[in-house]
Amino acid sequence: MPKTVSELLQARDLPELLRFADGTPVTKDRWGERRREILGILQENIYGVTPPPCPVEAEITATNERYCAGKVRHDTVRFTLHMPEGDHSFPLQLFRPAKAEPSPVIIHICFRPDYPDRYTPIEEITDHGFALAMFDYRDVASDDGDFTNGLGALTVGNRERRPNEWGKIGMWAYAASRVLDWLETVSGVDASRAVVTGHSRLGKTALWCAAQDERVACGISNDSGCGGAAIERGKVGETVARITTVFPYWFCPRYASYSDDVTRLPFDHHFISACVAPRLCYIASAEEDLWADPASEFLAAVAASDAYALLGETGLSPVPEHLPIAPQHFHDGKIGYHVRRGLHYYDREDWLEQMAFLEKHL
Ligand code: GCU
What we know:
- This protein is 31% helix and 23% strand.
- The chain is of the alpha/beta class.
- Helix 6 crosses helix 7.
């Protein structure tokens, strides 16, 4: 007999989400305090400390009102972060459906500057009524151990990072929040219905952005796995030891100190999705993506639901007795989940599932 979801969760022996670090039980009234405590734990131990918001500036450098045969207005934007240490600019693409009422907006943190792109079905997204803002993550800070470019240069430079100093995921997530600062001022966009999404390392980034930024109405993690949505204790595929060896610069240096024993982690990854509560959160898995570990992603969705229940909301729903088998989705509660067939990829099917969830709840 395969183990039930609750047996599997019990075996993971997770740290308690609904107890303060000093052991006091968390009540509904004190969830905000607990959420801030968790964000502090995540900053200190995995992603590093996030600086306060900085002023931003957006200059539209080109406009095409006839994109997708006139259905969409496309603006190319030179986006600037005015950090206390100096300025950093990067290109941003904004696509708005040509319709009278303001559109909910999806911020897609992308792997490439290309549009359309194999991970971003722009016409399909705008046909569903969403505006789309997208930027190439490497234009914010390079995806390597070099901290002398982009936001890295402004905040770290050549010196060694402190144990709790932010890594590249923190920087990319920060940029997505600053893009939202601007979108709040853009006509045709309803920034009260803002979604942040990304795939894989950028799924980790989107989730971290949504955990911290309460203006994000829905955070979507696509196949984010280790260091993202997936529960770490008992995880198969990629582990803390492996990810901090190959990609140490994604995280704060302290994360690597848990490599030899993840049971010492003062959190597990359901804490991250729980910080999105009571807002919408979506976790997507692919059946053959064993490196990310769909079971550990699904168990995180179930475990994070306790925060929603505390707040009188429903997280993942319905919770099945056994792990889901692809293709299957759970769209009834405020935590959405699906597992599709196939490999690690940001698939059109992922987008369609996620947009169906957004259309239902946003
Ligand atoms: C590697 C890495 C993963 C990451 C993935 C990606 O496979 O080990 O953690 O999610 O790259 O971003 O594509």
